[in-house]
Specification:
It is a single chain. The chain is α/β, with parallel strands linked by helices and 364 residues long. The chain is 28% helix and 23% strand. The protein is built from eleven helices and 17 strands. Helix 7 links the parallel strand 6 and strand 7. The protein is elongated and about 80 Å long. The relative contact order is 0.14. Keywords: Isomerase.
Length: 364
Amino acid sequence: MTRPIVAEISRSALAHNLRVARDHAPRSRIMTAVKANAYGHDVQLCAPVLAAAGVDAFAVASLEEAETIHALNLGKPICLLGGPFAAEEVSVAAERGYWLVIHEDRQLRWLENRAAQQDLQVFIKVDTGMHRLGFAPERLAEIFAKLQVYPHWQVLGLMSHLARADHPEDPFNAQQIGIFDQALQSFSGQTLGQHSLANSGAVLALPAAHQYWVRPGLMLYGLSPFADRNGIDIGLQPVLSWRSEIVATRQLQAGEWLGYGATWQAPAACRVGVVAAGYGDGYPRQLGTDTAVTVAGQPTRTLARVSMDMLFVDITHIQADIGSVVHLMGAGGPALEFMAAGLDTIPYEMSCRIQMRVPRRLGP
């Protein structure tokens, strides 16, 4: 590819962030979330690095994502957080040895019909108050009674998810942890004790939620789950460096217009760089005039509307020309958390926005 846009993924930052997770949860094993193409970072690049750095298992959202990791031959367990979405997926999961998270009755029927005599390892998801997925706590006795009929199935443990871990001081966290602990007191003896509750926010700030497994995702990519802090503030390193180059320059006179819709007018003579990046690459169209970027190592701003394949940067007062590197976000440029705040969204969405036509490349 000759178009200069690239998203570079740092090996050392991934390994560092995994160490931070281990430091915060030293008695837990790490099941890292690599769903949504490793949060937009490219799972085929990230998963081998994480495996080499010592992650204990991978967590994905679908069978298709599990198959992608399976093809990498990394030798780590793969957990389908949503369980099977169709009956035929049960047979594939049994054949591959994938762990299934079971959260509703239909999935149990699929297991009964497709894998009654097959070896399966499953988690039972309990709804502790988020009310997204999981069996109500009062139904667990019924569920475990059904499971006893199938001796080939192993229940690894109970699993749940925290709704407010990004606000660790919120009492709703303690409420959910308490409900989960009550379920463990009643049913842990019918499992292998490999329970899981903590996501990134809980790994970092809610040790009471640490169980046999913790499931960090966002933090492994160097991003903060907390709205008031960036990843660097909590000891993480940004994994992503999204950058392109200036491919043309323009000298505008006072009063001349720039870009689609002629929405930006030069207040004085200025110099503009045209950058090979746009909303077709995942750079948000809303980040037009006055969004921070770094050009040739110097801070500046965007101008006018972002188009599908290009955007504009102000190079009036900096040393830059055709070929100058433009850091759009991440390492070397504005933090993804900063960009997300400017759009009233979350870092998860910012990294997942980056389109597949932007090549990912593994860096140091």
